[in-house]
Design goal:
This protein has 4 helices and 5 strands. With 146 residues, the protein is α+β, with helices and mostly antiparallel strands. It has one domain. The protein has a 5-stranded antiparallel beta sheet. The chain is elongated, with a radius of gyration of 21 Å.
């Protein structure tokens, strides 16, 4: 090995060690999904499932940061309350996001039908639920930070 390769290897090892000391397990891509310690994050389209030894603990997670943080907490067997809060926020975000898409579609349909009263109501509902989605996502990502 040349000096650059040795230095790079030392840097990688020291980085892994620093993360481990802080209680963070770095995710590793495998054929089955993303491995975080003994926890597997399996992708199901846009959603992620958290599995330990083939048993699904959390299902249908939307946000990557939440999935990785929950996987780390489960791998270290820490703070189940935080896991549940993150999962609750992620589920709420997913629901708000879906609702916002539905209301936006309903708004466009009402506009096409020239039903201006309904269009206005759907726009207001869309804006409300979009703001909720943004706030919920921000809160979830804030809690998911390492």
């Amino acid at each position: 090995m040349n000096d650059v390769s040795k230095r790079f290897e030392q840097l990688v090892k020291s980085t892994y060690k620093k993360f481990a000391e802080k209680g963070t397990i770095l995710p590793v891509k495998t054929d089955q999904g993303i491995q975080v310690g003994d926890v597997l994050i399996r992708s199901d389209g846009p959603y992620k499932d958290i599995e330990v030894e083939g048993q699904v603990l959390y299902q249908g997670i939307s946000l990557n940061a939440v999935a990785i943080r929950i996987a780390n907490l489960v791998a270290w067997d820490k703070d189940k309350k935080l896991c549940e809060e993150l999962y609750r926020l992620d589920t709420a975000y997913s629901r708000y996001f879906t609702d916002s898409k539905i209301f936006l579609d309903m708004f466009h349909r009402a506009q096409a039908a020239e039903n201006w009263d309904r269009a206005e109501i759907m726009w207001i509902r869309y804006e409300d639920v979009k703001d909720r989605a943004i706030n919920t996502k921000s809160r979830a990502e804030e809690l998911a930070e390492f």
